[in-house]
Amino acid sequence: MFGNFFVLFERRKNRAFQIFPPSEAVTFSSGTGALSAIMQLIGSGDEVVSMASLYGGTYTYFDNIATKNGIRIVYLDVTDADKLHHALSRNTRMVYLESPVNPSMRVIDIEAVVRSVKGYNKDIITVLDNSFTTPYFLRPLDLGVDISYQSVSKYMGGHADVMMGSASVNSEDLANRLKYLQNNMGAIPSPFDCYLILRSLKTLHIRMKEHMKNGLLVAKFLERHPCVEKVNHPGLPSHPNYELFKKQSRGCSGIFSFYLSGGKTELFKFFRHLKIFTVAASFGGCESVCSFPTVMSHKGVQPKVLQAAGVTDNLARLSIGLEDVEDLMEDLDQALWSSGARKGYQQQQQQTSPTSTDSRRDRRGSQKIKIVNTQATQTGVAEVETPRFARRY
Predict the structure, then answer these.
(1) HSE (CB half, 13 Å, CA atoms) of 249?
(2) pTM for this one?
(3) CB 44: neighbour CB atoms within 10 A?
(4) Residue 123 DSSP one-character state
(5) 3-state SS assignment for residue 295
(6) In this structure, what is the dihedral angle of CA atoms 28, 31, 33, 38, given to the nearest 10 degrees?
(7) Furthest-apart CA pair in the chain: how many Å?
(8) pLDDT number for residue 372
(9) Which helix (H) or strand (E) holds 174?
(10) Which pLDDT does position 342 carry in this prediction?
(11) Whole-angstrom Cα distance, residue 212 to residue 224?
């Protein structure tokens, strides 16, 4: 029975994970398993040029495992074309990317980076972690990337009940090498996990549209909240890379981050008062999750690296799930006021004109939030009314 599930998954996985025909996909027992196999494509004495801002687990792997295997890791800001060009050397064998960046949500010009790298040496392998956006919204291979990999445990699985990773490639040579590594490293997904992913892929398009809609509504709500300094969401016009994100992605997931108007103490209080959100480092499930990067996913990263990446003690990352969006905003609202953030409720009340609650709600209720079209087209923009609860802001 389980053998049949695995055979069925092997037959369907290209169609499920392909980014652009004629791509091939290789699946692994986890996202880190996929990364480990990708790093085995190079060897001792080789060099990897990586983004300076990364998922904490990738930092840990690079600094504590890859370097012990004789691989040199060079961190830099890949958005600067001149820095990237000068960082490449004859020993560079791989350039590692992540977009949007975890957890700062910066967006890189993937096509421009690939063009710069390939202009220097066409044999350098470009790798992009696509876990945040998924192949449903972003197709890295179509932008020239050699290997697009993701933690399938997250949005692709979507129910927080399976572990798996995948790597998609357009090159037959890279596909064969990854298949060999998959088989001989033992990082093969179990038959039951294959079954669970096949189940989840049937609803991927529905879930991603809902994650996108809920995430944008909550982000817009927080952007106006007195206890929030700044919201980092690439789907909002206020994001510095908004136009670039629209150009290379068909939509966005439910992940974004924000800076609380306070410090570590206030952020801890905020987490303690959450009722619907689960405090955890993962993301991409049906349930909404909130994480504290500096003490969770990025705990092992050097402070100077965190500071340069904008990961501070008042930064929180949210993964917006599929719950009722007004319930989510109410939960965030009460937790924010309970956190003791410096812009308190009394201050807000003093700045509000002495009109009735109903008239304020009527006046602000006419505003609308622009979000990326839920049909995930390149240029479409849909207008969604602000939920009733959010109108007081």
Answers:
(1) 29
(2) 0.83
(3) 8
(4) T
(5) helix
(6) 90
(7) 71
(8) 39
(9) helix 172-185
(10) 67
(11) 19
